[in-house]
Amino acid sequence: MDNRKNKNAIILMAHGSRVPGAGEAMEKVACRLSEYGHYDIVETCYMSRLGPHFEETLEKCVKQGAKLVVLIPYFLNLGLHMKLDIPVKMKKESEKYPDVKLIFGKNLGFDELLVEIVKKRIEESLQLCDVREIDLEPRDRYKLPPEELEYVAMSQEEAKRFKAERRNQRKLG
User: Fold this and answer.
1) Count of structural domains within the chain
2) How far is 56 from 47, CA to CA, in rounded Å?
C-alpha cells in the first residue's frame, strides 16, 4: 500500500440503474484515469440503486490517505441532483472529515468534444436496424424496490397537481 501523505482522489458519480452493467462505461473511464497516473485514487459511485454510494466511496478514499477529493458528476445536464442532491450529500459527509478538502467538480455538460462524440455515434447508428426489429427484454426483469417510484410521463397540469400534493403531504407528515 502506498503510504504517501496528501493523496488526491477522484470520484466519478453517476445516477445508477437497476440494469446490471449500466455503469460499465463510466467505470472504464475511471480505469483509464487511474492508468493515466496523475491521480492517486480513482473511484466510482452512484446516487441511487445498487451502489456503491458516495458515503462509502468517500470513506474508502480517506482510509487510503486522500486529503483532496474531487467528485466529478458523470451527468450531462444541471438537474436536481446537480443543484441540490449531490452538494447536500457532500456537505453532510464533509463534517466527518474536517482535514479533507472535498470539491464538488463540474459535470460533463457541454464541450466541443461532446459534439464530435455525438457525430461519431450518429455515423455508427446509421448502420443499426429499425426499432421495430429490436427484441426487448421484459420490464419485470428490472424490478424496482418497493419504496422507489418509476418514472411516469405526465402533462404539465398533472405535474403541478402532483407537486402540490407532495408539498401538502410533507407539511402534514
Assistant:
1) 1
2) 12
